[in-house]
Specification:
By secondary structure, this protein is α/β, with parallel strands linked by helices. It has helices at residues 13-16, 30-37, 56-64, 88-95, 97-103, 117-134, 144-155; strands at residues 2-8, 49-52, 69-71, 138-142, 171-177, 183-191. A hairpin with a 5-residue loop joins strand 5 (171-177) and strand 6.
């Protein structure tokens, strides 16, 4: 078994405005940078091989954490298509009951011209399979959608109901991967906050 540690990037202006970001390349906000500056990666993860999504918010988070990363395109956020930049409120106004119906589809929700969470889980699964063959403890700075995909891989969660475990975002989410690419939750919510150490 090897360990896979995932960190969600710090906040952006679109996060603060509750807009769907997806693959739109929004950098960290000033408050987001300040928040990440208060994070410290625990020493037990210092020998991990680290990756980051190609989006600037993940790259900036990795840099602020002092991590040397390799860019991994597979762990880019879900593509929300025509819904990117929209809020839940604006989508409800535009789509009405259709938006509610799609939300209830969970892992099979598909925004117009976007990908579904199942698509994301499939590509994350391919990456996990590659990582499992390296035998190297690995970490990545990625996105909420990528971490949710990992939880789904580990538990079979269909994303229709709330996640089986509550996740904090100032934290590392740690998973175990077996030689065949099977995923298990190891430990969630390992704090990155210096005050919690």
């Amino acid at each position: 078994m090897i360990s896979l540690a995932l960190i969600r990037h710090g906040p952006t202006v679109w996060n603060e405005q509750k807009r769907l970001q997806g693959q739109t390349d929004i950098p960290l906000s000033p408050d987001g940078r300040k928040r990440v500056e208060g994070w410290t990666v625990p020493v037990e993860f210092s020998d991990f091989k680290w990756f980051a999504s190609p989006l600037s918010r993940a790259q900036q988070t990795a840099e602020l954490l002092g991590l040397t990363v390799e860019t991994e395109p597979t762990i880019i956020e879900m593509h929300w298509g025509d819904w990117e930049g929209q809020t839940g409120k604006s989508l409800k106004e535009k789509y009405g009951d259709e938006f509610i119906r799609r939300q209830k589809m969970g892992i099979d929700l598909r925004p117009d011209d976007g990908e579904s969470p199942r698509d994301v889980r499939d590509r994350v699964g391919e990456w996990v399979s590659r990582v499992s063959k390296t035998g190297v403890h690995t970490g990545a700075v990625a996105h909420q959608g990528i971490i949710r995909a990992m939880v789904s891989l580990a538990t079979g969660w269909d994303m229709i109901n709330p996640a089986p475990e509550k996740m904090e975002w100032d934290a590392i989410q740690l998973f175990s991967i077996d030689a065949d690419g099977g995923v298990k939750i190891d430990q969630l919510n390992i704090s990155l906050l210096a005050d919690d150490k």
